[in-house]
Specification:
Elements (H helix, E strand, L loop, with lengths): L2 H16 L21 E8 L2 E8 L18 H18 L7 E12 L11 E15 L2 E13 L2 E14 H8 L37 E7 L2 E6 L18 H16 L10 E10 L10 E6 L8 E9 L2 E12 L10
Antiparallel strand pairs: 1-2, 2-4, 3-6, 3-9, 4-5, 5-6, 7-8, 8-10, 9-12, 10-11, 11-12
Length: 340
Amino acid sequence: MSTQSLVKAAQTAEAAEVLSTQRTLSRRLVHRSAISEVFLTDFQSVDENTFRAAAQLPPRHFYYGDHTAHPAMHDPLAVFESVRQMLLCAMHLQHDASHDTKSITATASLEITDPEPLRVRGALDLLLLGTVELAKKYQDTISRVVHRVRVVVGGRQVGVVTVDTAQRPDAVYEKLRMSHRATPPPMSDTLPARTDGVAPPPRLVGREQAENVVLENADVADGAVRARLRVPTTHPSMFEHAQDHLPGPVMMEAARQAALLLAADGRDPSPAVCHPQYLAAEYLRFAELDSDITVVTRRLCDPVDGGRWTETDFVQQDETVARMRVRLAEAHATGAGDAL
């Protein structure tokens, strides 16, 4: 093992030893309302550009635990949610952002480099090692930050998450929200869930429960999916608290489900043996709750690595509000993992 690897292993062991998984952090620090939706258990600033946290994925969860995957594994999007909570916490404890500011994600990516540690039964402890790749301030207040987080389980690195986030005071955020609207945006808890669409069978999008399907009126043809996004405003996880726009993670789920729906179209392996190995998201503007969003997903020609790639556009009022790229991997296609 190289000197650099030995140093990394020592730092990882130290972080695992000092961080606790005995109880969750304050809901306020991770912007959650329900204790059951808090996965982060500890956070520690190391220096100006380094921080770390512990999280625990629950053994069962109505949303993150609802999958047809064989063999069973913890959801990569649950890993992303743990990192997302860590970065919200970091905004306050690492960057001193006040609670009267809003975090706005510009881009985000998740790469699972070694899925094997996720294939366990029961709760799963995560070690999250964060670095500040770029930080900008405006009037001595953080305004933009790019974070990179390594996700470690039992000494093995399972993945990497990178997120580019803007931080805006509430008053500035309100102006941004009205920049493409003539009326104030409705809050999700004032809107009933739509029931006029027809969702695909849950197993075609890797789900057991119909409540977790976010596509409807899907048309699959010529290596593409066109569907309406089902906005689950009453969902206990996707809309865990009231929102004035469609959350980015809901669109991530839609991109994942559209990729799996294409996989179920006959040419690719069953959704039951696939998981998202890579997901990259670019958010171009706020996705509104009071206007239909069309999900348009296309197969991409296999890159050099031979992966099953799809690209998804989220179109609202003839404008693309977000774009995502997904690579599916099969259960037997394991990564070697990084030595720590």
